[in-house]
Amino acid sequence: MEYIKIFFIFFKIGLFTIGGGLAAIPLLQVEAFSRNWVTPEFFTDMIAVSQSTPGPIGANMATYVGFNELGIAGAIVATLGLICPAVIIVYLISKYLLHFNEKKIVIDVFSGLRPAVAGMILAASYNIAKVTVYKGDIFHPTGNIIEMIDIKNSILFIIFFALISKFDKHPIFFIVLGGIVGNLIL
Predict the structure, then answer these.
(1) How far apart are CA 144 and CA 13, in angstroms?
(2) How far apart, in whole angstroms, are the C-alpha atoms of residue 38 and residue 44?
(3) Which residues of the chain have pLDDT under 70?
(4) Fewer CB within 10 A of the terminal residue: the chain, N end or C end?
(5) What's the confidence (pLDDT) of residue 137?
(6) Per-residue pLDDT at 158
(7) pTM of the full predicted structure?
(8) C-alpha dist (Å) from residue 150 to 28, 128, 130, 135, 154
(9) d(CA 74, CA 154)
(10) How far apart are CA 66 and CA 3, in angstroms?
């Protein structure tokens, strides 16, 4: 029964994730927190690890959660649940809709989806920033605005943002560098 449940949880996420893995983060976050699969801090770590390993972020996270909850079979079931909607939709489009991307309704639907996906990615970025940079639990009791921000994480964010903007290096370089700096400083 648990396998069916986890399959359909990830099937739902896969069905409504339009725009790639980053758009899946808000849906994954809601499910993970409502079911107490992970803490907000661990969820942020999962995003970092999923982004730094090969494969789509949603599939990596589904595999991890499935494994954590139900072992190897759970990892397989959760991952299949996540990718099945895409496989079904692509199959149906390729089989029954010739010139799919030329149809006016499809063009109009995707025009409406683009801003929605951008908003979901922005919301995911905000939620990640809340966990990594914002320390509201300290700020509210003391009322000191300076204590509201994690200074180390904020400085690291600014430095890495500047490095990524200035130097045209492969993302793996920055992932490895971030891991080394994180181990040394934090």
Answers:
(1) 39
(2) 10
(3) 19-21, 97-98, 101, 135-146, 186
(4) N
(5) 61
(6) 87
(7) 0.61
(8) 25, 13, 10, 6, 6
(9) 37
(10) 9
Tokens at residue 100, please?
A: 């799919």
Helices (H), the chain: 2-16, 21-34, 40-52, 57-96, 104-132, 136-142, 151-166, 171-185
| d(C-alpha 102, C-alpha 47), whole Å | 35
Structure confidence by residue, pLDDT tens digits, 135-181: 666 556 666 666 777 788 888 888 888 998 898 888 778 888 888 88
C-beta atoms surrounding 168 within 10 Å: 6
Given a contact cutoff of 8 angstroms between Cβ atoms, the answer to whether 14 and 58 are in contact is yes
Query: What does R_g of the chain's alpha carbons equal in angstroms?
Result: 19
* Cα 42 from Cα 107, distance rounded (Å): 38
- CA dist 152 and 58 (Å) reads 29
Among 90, 115, 85, smallest CA distance to 101 is for 90
Q: Tokens 């149809």 map to which residue? A: 103
Beta bridge partners of 134: 149
